[in-house]
Design goal:
Number of helices: 4
Distance between the termini: 60 Å
Order of helices and strands: HHHH
Largest sheet: none
Helix content: 40-55%
Strand content: under 5%
Structural class: mainly alpha
Number of domains: 2
């Protein structure tokens, strides 16, 4: 079975694999958990109908303009990403030195 040793099993499904996107994700988790993170991105893109789920991060100024003070803002980052410097700079510009 070539699928199990593939370097990209999340996109190289055999023709006879008649599974839903979610079933593929579960199968990937069971057999190739090392590829689960990428598989989840593929799953999300397929379910949402997009080529990819990644996009450019919006500026904090734009996020600030689109929210209200009673709503929390959740910043989701990826490994190696640290928005704290950008957040501190934005806070200084909006609120003054802290």
């Amino acid at each position: 079975m070539q699928w199990i040793v593939s370097s990209t099993p999340e996109v190289e499904w055999p023709q006879q694999a008649r599974m839903s996107a979610f079933q593929k994700l579960l199968f990937l988790q069971a057999c190739r958990s090392d590829r689960l993170e990428t598989g989840m991105s593929v799953f999300a893109a397929e379910v949402l109908g997009h080529a990819t789920v990644s996009q450019a991060a919006p500026s904090l100024a734009r996020v600030y303009e689109e929210t209200i003070s009673t709503e929390p803002i959740l910043l989701v980052t990826t490994a190696g990403s640290d928005p704290s410097v950008e957040l501190e700079d934005f806070a200084r510009r909006c609120m003054g030195k802290f």
